[in-house]
């Protein structure tokens, strides 16, 4: 479904992504794990069109998407939940969700998807008129995920959904991610919580300073001594 081949990404003179290739197959949860600054967010931002690779290629469902405008990538079926949620604080929950559908014009479909989001996140339904900036961290994460789902993505990019959340909420968010995947959405998940990420993923990649150092099934990586030592607390 998504195929990245040997991309290099720079921030000015900083070479953040060094010849990375990776694949996400339809229906799967694929996770990228790695320490702070390894380049995980940079990969997601490059897929979603916020950054342009200097070379290499990115194909989504067979179409080349490297360097095309971000809103066109959303239209093709890829949506990103950014790190730190980035909800629009001065807008209501409802307005944030409506914005997620800005690339669509099928009113009926949008209404159906709004209902699905409310079923998945009942807490958002209770708070439709509340300003997003006054939601708790967990609720903001749910809103950011709900907003991304409003574009009806076939591939959902999640950047550190567990960041800053209490353990119980982390569990809840991961169970929702599994559920979103089970209802047909493919997921590329960036996480520092390697334990949780590997527990729900099919495939995994380990990133170190802009390079992929390990790749395999999530089971294999969770059992690997190297991964256990570096990312799973021994
Ligand atoms: P984190 O979990 O801390 O977000 P990450 O693995 O997602 O880490 P990135 O945010 O992708 O890492 O950063 C990869 C590298 O690119 C880092 O060395 C970082 O300092 C650098 N970088 C990221 N954003 C910028 C930017 N806007 N300008 C310059 N350098 C950047």
From TrEMBL:
Biological process per Gene Ontology, one example term: L-amino acid transport
UniProt-listed InterPro entries: AAA+_ATPase, ABC_branched_ATPase_LivF/BraG, ABC_transporter-like_ATP-bd, ABC_transporter-like_CS, BCAA_Transport_ATP-bd_LivF, P-loop_NTPase
Every ABC transporter domain range: 2-234
A single GO molecular function term of this UniProt record: branched-chain amino acid transmembrane transporter activity
Record's keyword terms, sorted: Amino-acid transport, ATP-binding, Nucleotide-binding, Transport
Family: Belongs to the ABC transporter superfamily.
Protein name, as recorded: Branched-chain amino acid transport system ATP-binding protein
């Amino acid at each position: 479904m998504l195929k990245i081949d040997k991309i290099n990404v720079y921030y000015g003179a900083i070479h953040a992504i060094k010849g990375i290739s990776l694949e996400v197959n339809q229906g799967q949860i694929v996770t990228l794990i790695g320490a702070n600054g390894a380049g995980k967010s940079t990969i997601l931002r490059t897929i979603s069109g916020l950054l342009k690779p200097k070379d290499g290629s990115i194909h989504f469902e067979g179409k080349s998407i490297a360097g095309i405008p971000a809103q066109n990538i959303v239209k093709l079926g890829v949506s990103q939940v950014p790190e730190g949620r980035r909800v629009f604080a001065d807008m209501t929950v409802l307005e944030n969700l409506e914005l997620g559908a800005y690339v669509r014009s099928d009113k009926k479909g949008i209404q159906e998807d709004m209902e699905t989001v409310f079923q998945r996140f009942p807490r958002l339904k209770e708070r439709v008129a509340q300003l997003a900036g006054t939601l708790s961290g967990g609720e903001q994460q749910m809103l950011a995920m709900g907003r991304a789902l409003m574009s009806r993505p076939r591939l959902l990019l999640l950047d550190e959904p567990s960041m800053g959340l209490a353990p119980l909420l982390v569990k809840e968010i991961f169970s929702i991610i599994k559920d979103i995947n089970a209802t047909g959405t493919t997921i590329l998940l960036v996480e520092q919580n390697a334990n949780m990420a590997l527990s729900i993923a099919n495939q995994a990649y380990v990133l170190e300073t802009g390079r992929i150092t390990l790749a395999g099934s999530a089971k294999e990586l969770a059992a690997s001594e190297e991964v256990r030592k570096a990312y799973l607390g021994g």
